[in-house]
Amino acid sequence: MPAHPETRIGHVHLKVTDLDRSVAFYRDVMGLEVMQTYGRQAAFLSAGGYHHHIGLNTWHSKDGPRADPRAPGLYHTAFVFPDRPALADALARALHHGVEIEGAADHGVSEAIYFSDPDGNGIEIYRDRAPEEWPRSGNGTLLMTNAPLDLPNLLLEATEDRAD
């Protein structure tokens, strides 16, 4: 039996090595708000006042080594933005904070930018196109692509002032 069609992925909870550094990244680079902390071991952040979209903890990972990128585990956490200007603002904020962009793609159904948090956890920031714009074959099958994304062009749509 398939999952209910309104099922969605909820929050993600990451093991990190340095809670303060990770909170600063997800607050300052990703633009999330700290909703609650549990001492010096865990923090919960969100957008728009939700209880949390991301949890960070050092319960088993404080000062630990960076995970081997070839090991099984989470590939990336994806943050979806409502439109192209909001995605451009998120990209501008990341660049302002010195984040190294690892990739960018136009998938036909979405536009996506990839980078990592301070512990090497993959991050995708993206915006979906409207379903009626998705590329499809003659029989209606979805045809996702992996074309280059023009980041300078995207940044022209940024609306946030990065003078801070």
> Per DSSP, what share of the residues sits in E-state strands of 2 or more residues?
25-35%
Distance between the termini: 51 Å
Mean pLDDT: 94
Largest sheet: 5 strands, mixed
Q: How many H/I helices?
A: 3
The secondary-structure class comes to: alpha+beta
The strand count comes to 9
- List the helices and strands in order: EHEEEEHEEEEH
Considering the chains and any ligands shown, give keywords for the structure.
164 residues; alpha+beta; 5-stranded mixed sheet; 4-stranded mixed sheet; 9 strands; 18% helix; globular
Account of the protein in words:
It contains three helices and nine strands; from the N terminus they run E-H-E-E-E-E-H-E-E-E-E-H. It is α+β, with helices and mostly antiparallel strands and 164 residues long. The strands form two sheets. A five-stranded mixed beta sheet has the order 5-8-7-6-9. A four-stranded mixed beta sheet has the order 1-4-3-2, covered by helices on one side. It is globular, with a radius of gyration of 17 Å. The model has no long low-confidence stretch (mean pLDDT 94).
